[in-house]
Each structure stands twice: as structure tokens, then as C-alpha cells.
Automatic annotation (TrEMBL):
Protein name listed in UniProt: DDE Tnp4 domain-containing protein
Compartments in which it is found: Nucleus
Domain (DDE Tnp4) ranges: 106-267
Similarity comment: Belongs to the HARBI1 family.
Annotated Pfam families: DDE_Tnp_4, DUF8040
Domain DUF8040: 1-69
A molecular function (GO) term: metal ion binding
GO cellular component, one term: nucleus
Superkingdom of source: Eukaryota
Classification via InterPro entries: DUF8040, HARBI1-like, HARBI1_dom
Amino acid sequence: MEKHVFIKLCDRLRSYGLTSTKGVGLEEGVGMFLMTLGHGVGNRIIQEQFQHSGETVSRQFGIVLKKMIMLAFDEIRPLEEYNEVPDYIHSNDKYWPYFKDCIGAIDGTHVRVSLPVDEQIPYIGRKGFPTQNVMAACGFDMLFTFVWPGWEGTAHDTRIFSEAIRNTELKFPKPPDDKYYLVDSGHPNMRYLAPYKGERYHLQEFRSSRQPKSSRETFYYVHSSLRSVIERCFGVWKARWRILQHMPNYNFDKQVAIVTASLALHNFIRREAIADVEFESCDENQDYVPELEDEESYINLTIDENHIGVVRDRIARELMLS
């Protein structure tokens, strides 16, 4: 994290009421918190590095975490009304004007959790170890606009997605009627654009084989390329915060809060950084997708051919003619 970003972060947390405590300055407390998340180290390492007792380290972590959740409420949300075409699309002939009404992408990902053996079963999905399923939406600026962590690893993405758009208390940023998100498979709604079923889809498959020939394959290729923004977001986020790979034995609610805090920090750094190493590879190469260990996530829904399917067919034809 760049120095000026750290200073701004401390100032923001101060505005939420974070203060220095006896023996621990505000900046030091934030530094301990960031080291814990960024390096995935335990209490003992923080004790040695900052010369504080284990009790002080633990207490300070909890204090900062609460303020980070307040940060998340302000950072993880759409900041515009979707009146303008995203620069990412408008500046790229591969996407413009075909996807001019697209505002972002939605997907799910898994984060390891640490649970007692007798509580693990609902959280052990296809990966073979306990995880929490995290649903997220992002824009093409690589900022998360919605996150919902804390689901059991066995929970299907379809269920999570459906609950998110039905539950008004979550304030999921539904797009206007003439806009849509990209997803893996469709939804019976005009606002979620999926690929065709039964064809090759993932971007790396096109890179390793022949170029797309039909209108459907062309659509797949461009859809996959554009939708990869959510995969890049997940990749940068997980690469930066190593605690996500080996979650400590906190209670589950605290583990969920850590995920939320790290997502908020992802957005804060993206907005404030001048030259952030983690984002540079993605900015320099729009097709770059960080490798994610054991990553496999899908949203499998049912397409409504009378609505979004019409949009999909139109884009496929236009891409083939271009």
C-alpha cells in the first residue's frame, strides 16, 4: 500500500470514530490490522513485530475491524446512475457499441473458513474443504458494487443470486430496464445477459484453440473477455489479502467481517492509489486474469429467450458482421 493511501485510510477511519488507545496509536493499530490481513500472520508475529501483548493485539484488531465494516458501507456501492457508457467499453472496439448497455459482471467465489469439525459439513462443497461462498458484482473499473459473503460452501450460486435480488434489505444495485449485468448463465429478466448454452465458453479455451467462427462462438469469446473483469477483481483481491487463503480460528461472524473488510480495502485502494502493483497487470493487459487456486464458480440460471435472449442474438449478429 502506498504511503499516501495509508494516510488517507487512517483519516477515513478517524472520521468513523477510530482513535488512538492507551499505548497504541491510531496509525499503529491500522498497521497491525493491515499486516494481519495482508500477510495472513497470527497474533504472535504481530506481537513480535509491534512489541505489544497478545491481548492488546487481539483487542486492537477487533476495534479496527468494526471501523472497517463502516468503511465497507461507504465503499462498496455503485457511485453513478449508469447514464454513461463505461470508458472500459467505449474505448475498446471489441466491446463498443455491442455492449454499450452493460454495467458490470456478477459471479461467486469461495474463501476458506476455519470451523470446528462438527460444524464443517454444510461448508464443504465441491472443493473438499470448508469455504464460505461470496457473491459479488463489480463494474468495469474493477470496483465491487455489491458483496454478500457468509454463505455455506454448499450453497448454490443460483440460490444466493436469487435471494440477493429478492431481498430488498440488501439493496442489491439492480440496473435500469435498459441496462444489464453479465453472468455465466441467464436469468429470466432483461437485466442479466448470459452466453448461449452447450458451447465452449471460457476465454482460455479460445486462446488455446481455433478462433471463433460462428456468431455464437464470436459472442462467447467477447462475452467471456468482457465478463473476466469479475475474475480479475477476485484475483487481485485474493492475491493481496493472504489471510483469505488461511483463515485463523476466529468465530464465523468475525471471519465474514474480515472478508467484508478486505473487499472494502480493495475498493479504497483502487480509488486512491496512483501506482498500485496489484492492479497494474490488469490495467496494462485487459485480458490478464490472475490465477486463482481452486477457483471454479458459476451462476447457473434459466434463460428467458423472449427477453435477454433477443439482446444476445442481436449482439452476436452484430459482432459477426463487424
